[in-house]
Amino acid sequence: MELGLHDKVALDNTLLQNWYACGINLTKAAVDSLATSFLNNPEVIQPELAGTLSAPGVYIGQFTANPIQDTFFNSTGWTKGQLFVNGYNLGRYWPVAGPQTTLYVPKPYIQQTNTILLIELVGTTQNTVSFIDMPSTGFE
């Protein structure tokens, strides 16, 4: 069985030419390195733009957990992407397609100070994340 693209690729009905597809290294070490490089170079981050653009991007931030316990990432307000907490890939979020709107964040992955990284594939005007204490399917 062949996987991948089998025909020409178009964007907004325009045939794409001279492009290539490549993989993205999403190992824990690679995600940790990416997050650290952004957090250690705050001049690359432009907080005045946060919440004004609706474009794909990488969103990185930190939060403090007190108490340290199981929690759930609430994807409401985000569009479609991948969630990492402290370098751990916790899954994909896509609240309009589901089936869930929350992602489980287990207690062993949580520390006093935590780094969150979202790879937003579509774009959003959201610039904050929230965690809740119960899962949600979005159909309650």
Automatic annotation (TrEMBL):
The molecular function GO annotations come to:
hydrolase activity, hydrolyzing O-glycosyl compounds
What Pfam families does this protein's entry cite?
BetaGal_gal-bd
* Every Beta-galactosidase galactose-binding domain range: 57-113
Entries under InterPro entries matching the protein: BetaGal_gal-bd (IPR048913), Galactose-bd-like_sf (IPR008979), Glycoside_Hdrlase_35 (IPR001944)
GO terms (BP aspect): carbohydrate metabolic process
Write out the entry's keywords from A to Z.
Glycosidase, Hydrolase
Name of the protein in question = Beta-galactosidase
Species the sequence originates in: Acrobeloides nanus
